[in-house]
Amino acid sequence: MESTDTTSGAAGHDPEAKRKIVNRLRRAQGQLAAVIAAVEAGEDCRAVVQQLSAVSKAVDRAGFLVISTALQDCLADPDADGGPKPAELEKLFMSLA
User: Fold this and answer.
1) 24, 27, 86 from 53: Cα distances, Å
2) Fewer CB within 10 A of the end CB, N or C, for the chain?
3) Backbone angles phi, psi at 41, to 5 degrees
4) Which segments of 14-80 does DSSP mark as H helices, in order?
């Protein structure tokens, strides 16, 4: 998986946004643990797929929150050195679509 300074830096500027992102990722981590347990227990495929869907949505929401935070930073200070550029934010957004 690829990491960029834009996403980690954007969350780092706003402690509240960082807290929300971490909470969403922890929720996804718990949901993924439930999926693993369901597979190991031989649960019905419908239940496993439903749980996988929840994990996917939780991770996507965390990603959108990272991008949203970066976009807010970009709008607040569009000339910041090393800050996210609109084209880069668009590319990141589309990677989650």
Assistant:
1) 15, 13, 30
2) N
3) -85, -5
4) 15-40, 45-76
